[in-house]
Amino acid sequence: MGKKKDYNRMGYLFVLPFVIVFLIFSVYPVLRTLYLSFTDYKGYGTENFVGMANYIRVINDKFFWQALWNTIKIWSVNIVLQIGLAFILTLIFSDIKYRFRGLSVFRAIFYLPNLIAATSVSFLFKTLLDWRFGTFNQMLMEAGLIDMPINWLGATTTAPIVIAVIGAWMWFGNSFIVLMAGVQGISTEYFEAAAIDGAGRWAVFKNITIPLLKPILIYISITSLIGGLQMFDLPFLMSGGVDGAPSGSLQTVVMYLYKFGFVTNQVGYAAAIAYVLFLIILVISILQLKVFNKKED
Amino acid sequence: MGTKIKKSIVYAALIILAISCILPFVLMMVNATRSGSEIMASFTFKPGTSLEENWVTVSGYFDLFKGFWNSLVVAVPATLLTAYFSGLTAFALGVYKFKGSNFIFGVIVIFMMIPGQLGLLGFYNLVRALGLIDSYIPLIIPAIAAPGTVFFLRQYVKSVLSPSLLEAARIDGASEIRIFHQIVLPIMSPGIATMAIGAFIGNWNSYLVPLILLNSPDKFTLPVMIASLNASQDVASNQGAIYLAVAISVIPVMIFFCFCSRYIISGISAGGVKE
Which residues of A touch B138 (CB under 8 A)? Predict the structure, then answer.
């Protein structure tokens, strides 16, 4: 009896390295950011407590809301394309009648763009999409689809869409794998029973596939929300700076935060931006959960 | 009859989509061998003859091999730490019954949902206070605590490790840490490998944190180095060189993927279903 207790006590020892590092490098920074958000800290020197001043400034900062709107715009175009494409692919490969082949090969190819660092992807597309000298415009002109080169990344109308499409191109393979894993996790009994009952493909899809995929759809949409509203690498590198050229249309919230935190040294204000963004993500996540759960009724 | 046509249309669409995933990389490789003026003039799938010239230009910008080496020096230890300590922590949380283990697990789940940007400023602040700016330590040591990996491996160890095996080893007089190293770790290795590959790719591609922590160009990891191309914006004359630099950063990952794609995909699948 005494011995058994000793075994379990070893648990403390084994989680200790994790707990120490976790407290120092994960928990403390999050709390430290919270504290800084109530100060006028500039990245050096002393910090003075300023109460809610930074938060009031965020609420009244039209550039913050503009950055949030830019982020939501890019994210929503991106998510519709990304999950839409992944969904159609899942539909194709889970079709009970046609039984398409080559899943593993297609899955690997579709996943490929995910692996490449955002920096490399950005430079690749920046160069391919270059207005005057880019290969993409050359291809379109050769194919006779356009007469004049299009300034993809130079216009406020096209640039956010280009970012959203590149994001979807990078990440749809990931969503597809997760969704497909969900379908494969559905017991074949359901499908067989449906086939015996003479259910059509649409009925099977609507009554079996979708309801059973629901938890995974929730998972994908929430993780993509958390990732999407924090978008930084792609728009930052494609626009070539924190200001989100052209005309700020590519400035996302985290780029705006980065600007105050690391360029203009208004760390306290940047910290408040971080927490406001966190609250926004939290609220939208909860709303998403509510919407998904309502559909069940 | 109709079925066949419908199937062919879908296959054609799938192939077009697959081509769109590969085409940018093919153009990248072709253009990496062509001169700036050739690329400006027209596009082609025929490789050119300016590979060497482009390489000379790239070498003028930065030392890519150094960037490569720096990325390895960061990503390999970080991945090993994540793999080992996540395994150990998951084992402790999944197998031992001790006060506070549920609390720790709860905190882990909460931190999985917290966006990374929330701790960014505090993290930078801490690293500065510790005098570790421009050092690899803050890029490597935090890898010991990877909540997502622990979360996954805790479920995993519970499903693959039978309690009787532990009991038998204890009766043989093995110490707990030895049991972990010689029995548990090998049993967990498929799950750990899956998570480690994901962690490696994440570390290898990481951009924002190295960007804010590293100052000296000779310490830049590959993504930070590639991103510094921005400063040399001679797209017109040096397009070929830019393609080559990007190609050099991309090709190793592609080769790696050819060998590990199965593990990578099973890892993502497992992560999604677990939720």
Answer: 25
What distance in Å separates the CA atoms of residue B210 and residue B206, rounded to the nearest whole number? 7
Alpha-carbon distances, residue B104 vs A11, A18, B147 (angstroms): 12, 10, 10
Residue A156 within any structural domain of the chain:
yes
Q: Per the domain annotation, does A50 fall within a domain?
A: no
CB contact under 8 A, B249 and A19: no
Record the tokens describing residue A161, joined without a space: 């869409």
b/e A108-131 (16+ beta carbons within 10 angstroms → b):
bbbbbbbbbbbbbbbbbbbbbbbe
Q: CA-CA distance, B275 to B258, in Å (whole number)?
A: 28
Q: How far apart are the first and last CA of chain A?
A: 51
3-state helix, strand, coil in chain B (%, to 5): 80, 0, 20
Chain A interface, mutation test: which of B11, B117, B151, most A Cβ atoms within 10 Å? Answer: B117
Nearest CB among A12, A128, A216 relative to B98 is that of A12
Q: What's the CATH code of the domain at A156?
A: 1.10.3720.10
Residues of chain A neighbouring B126 (CB-CB closer than 8 A): 24-25, 28-29, 32
Phi, psi (deg, nearest 5) at residue B135: -115, 155
- Give the whole-angstrom CA distance, residue B129 versus residue B140: 17
Contact indicator for A15, B92 with CB cutoff of 8 Å: yes
CA distance B205 to B223: 6
The CA-CA-CA angle for residues B95, B96, B100, to 5°, reads: 120
B1-26 pLDDT, tens digit per residue, is 578 888 899 999 999 999 999 999 99
pLDDT at res. B274: 39
Cβ contact A181–B273 (<8 Å): yes
Residue B229 has pLDDT above 80, yes or no: no
Give me the interface pTM, i.e. the ipTM: 0.88
pTM of the predicted model as reported, rounded to 2 decimal places: 0.89
DSSP β-bridge partners for residue A39: A49
Does residue A167 form part of some domain? Answer: yes
Q: How far is CA B105 from the centre of its chain?
A: 24
Answer yes or no: do B92 and A10 touch at CB < 8 A. yes
How many domains, chain A? 1
User: How many residues are there in chain B?
Assistant: 275
Question: Is A49:A37 a contact under the CB 8 Å cutoff?
Answer: no
State the residue range of the domain holding A283: 61-296
Is A25 among the domain residues? no
Which residue shows structure tokens 């279903």?
B273
